């Protein structure tokens, strides 16, 4: 049993969580933490809800952007047409990591504070975040979601529904062999099929990469960069969320996000879970 004091992160509504295995379109409510960031009425990046008033995204998405110009849509399914489960907020504050490097994409992470808290529903709820010390071994199944292009230069067709794709984690050693030793830092995590064909793409930036452990979805990465989209031997590169637990908690003083330590034993899928509770207690489940 989970400790009742622990947050309700990473748990989509069971009645809505019927996913199309191997498919592309994500059923409504499958990823209730997914947000869409808009400027001038256009989607430009994704993000993830991590508590009632904060969103996690990539620093490159909001570089040079004023908070008041960004609208955050939560509970959105389609970029065109009606979204009956949607609410919106403006970004009252944008905080990029102070050590974000534009050239290398190191520390590509930012926080957005919403203009007002949101009420959690079956379609709007926070994701859990990978705690410091989390281990995502090669082959761990991960899901990426977003409204980005479906190929290099190929926009998502109407009605532009939220898309999902499953990709395995690629170890940093393998990823360095693709991009070069200096290009991939410990603050990054890679994922994708080495034969290509599945990947995040332009417009997905800032969105979450998540893996399931027990009954919780845990965000391991933030869509950051890649060479093209779904190219062979060029996996997608993501900001490694577990490296930023202290930074995130230093900025969110109340109602802190739910951090969970993710552990995996290689490629066999066996997982164990440790929840990090208030007061630095831990609970094996």
Automatic annotation (TrEMBL):
Alphabetized GO MF terms: serine-type endopeptidase activity
Coiled-coil parts of chain: none
Task: Please verify whether the record's keywords include Transmembrane.
Answer: no
Domain Peptidase S1, by residue range, is 20-253
List the PROSITE patterns: TRYPSIN_DOM, TRYPSIN_HIS, TRYPSIN_SER
Q: Which InterPro entries match?
A: Peptidase_S1_PA, Peptidase_S1_PA_chymotrypsin, Peptidase_S1A, Trypsin_dom, TRYPSIN_HIS, TRYPSIN_SER
Tell me which UniProt keywords the record has, alphabetically: Disulfide bond, Glycoprotein, Hydrolase, Protease, Serine protease, Signal
Question: Which terms does the UniProt entry file under GO BP?
Answer: proteolysis
What's the protein called, per UniProt?
Answer: Peptidase S1 domain-containing protein
Q: What is the lineage of its organism?
A: Eukaryota, Metazoa, Chordata, Craniata, Vertebrata
């Amino acid at each position: 049993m989970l400790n009742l004091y622990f947050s309700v992160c990473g748990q989509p509504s069971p009645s809505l969580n019927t996913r199309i295995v191997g498919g592309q379109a994500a059923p409504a409510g499958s990823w209730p933490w997914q947000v869409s960031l808009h400027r001038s009425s256009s989607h430009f990046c994704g993000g993830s809800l991590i508590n009632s008033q904060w969103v996690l995204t990539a620093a490159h998405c909001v570089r040079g952007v004023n908070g008041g110009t960004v609208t955050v849509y939560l509970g959105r399914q389609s970029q065109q047409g009606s979204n009956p489960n949607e609410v919106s907020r403006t970004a009252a504050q944008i905080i990029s990591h102070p050590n974000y490097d534009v050239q290398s994409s190191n520390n590509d992470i930012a926080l957005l504070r919403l203009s007002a808290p949101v009420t959690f529903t079956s379609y709007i709820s926070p994701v859990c975040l990978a705690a410091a010390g989390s281990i995502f071994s090669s082959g761990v199944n991960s899901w990426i979601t977003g409204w980005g292009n479906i190929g290099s230069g190929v926009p998502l067709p109407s009605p532009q529904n939220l898309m999902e794709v499953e990709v395995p984690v690629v170890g940093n050693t393998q990823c360095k062999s693709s991009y070069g030793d200096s290009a991939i830092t410990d603050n990054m995590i890679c994922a994708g099929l080495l034969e290509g064909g599945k990947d995040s793409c332009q417009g997905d930036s800032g969105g979450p990469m998540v893996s399931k452990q027990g009954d919780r979805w845990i965000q391991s990465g933030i869509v950051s960069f890649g060479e093209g989209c779904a190219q062979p031997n060029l996996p997608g590169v993501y900001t490694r969320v577990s490296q930023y637990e202290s930074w995130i908690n230093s900025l969110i003083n109340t109602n802190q996000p739910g951090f969970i330590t993710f552990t995996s034993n290689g490629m066999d899928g066996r997982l164990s879970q440790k929840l990090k509770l208030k007061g630095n207690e831990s609970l094996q489940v």
